[in-house]
Amino acid sequence: MTLFEQAHSRREALRVAAIAAAVVALTPRLAFAKPEEVKAEIDKLYGAREMTTGKLKLDMPEIAENGLVVPINIEVESPMTEADYVKSVSVFAEGNPFPRVLTYRFTPACGRAAASLRMRLAQTQNVIAVAETSTGQLYTARSEVKVTIGGCGG
Amino acid sequence: MATKTSARVRVPPKAKKDEIIEVKTLVSHEMESGVRKDASGKIVPRDIINTFTAAFNGAVVFEADWFPSISANPYQAFFFKAKESGEFTFTWKDDNGQETTAKAKLEVA
């Protein structure tokens, strides 16, 4: 094999590898929700209204070793009285097959607008929460979680 | 679903008036997301619990809508302000219309 042929075949191998990497990188993307879809869902549920940060806390691990069970804690600062309570909280995932994760409906009987559960994360992504109070205020929070092994199957 | 759904609930049996207690629930369910393929490459149809409802003495106090991103065997914790003695009823509903219920008593001193 001449030097030229060697270089050529190596280039060919690199090209094939690059295409394969691109295919691998692109294929799963198609099946996942995108940030724009999450935004569209939020607009659909809560309207394109102004949101403030700070009152809603979305507590998730920075790194999730197992994407099948990622703990998520939500808490909204609120007096939780008949006059002023948190009506709902919704959670969205930017990198899962479906943008919506959950919606909670609280009542003043809860005493505290907080809840926790475990969710699936297919890949490293942003998780976004939106809360609406009975007075019409909207709060938002986001959390980036790095996922070592993705959940959701497929 | 191949296995029967079973639920576990943890509520403190006694609380003081106006005390805020934590209610913890766990239900067994595969939460089939509808995107997973079986060994033959066919997509396994979606079957998840889509609603969880907690009521106290008949009045709904907390509700959750769940989507396929919720982990299998869903755990759900939330809070409740104790006002009077009574009973919680928890209901989980899945895509196939199967309902699972659990009850727990609370005594308020």
UniProtKB/TrEMBL annotation, chain A:
Top-level division of the source organism's lineage: Bacteria
PROSITE patterns for this protein: TAT (PS51318)
Pfam families: SoxY (PF13501)
Ig-like SoxY domain sequence ranges: 44-152
InterPro entries linked: SoxY (IPR032711), SoxY_sf (IPR038162), Sulphur_oxidation_SoxY (IPR016568), TAT_signal (IPR006311)
Name of the protein described by the UniProt record: Sulfur-oxidizing protein SoxY
Organism: Methylopila capsulata
Automatic annotation (TrEMBL), chain B:
Superkingdom per UniProt: Bacteria
UniProt xrefs under InterPro entries: Ig-like_fold, Ig_E-set, SoxZ, SoxZ_dom
Chain ranges of the Sulphur oxidation protein SoxZ domain: 10-104
NCBIfam families: SoxZ_true
Protein name: Sulfur-oxidizing protein SoxZ
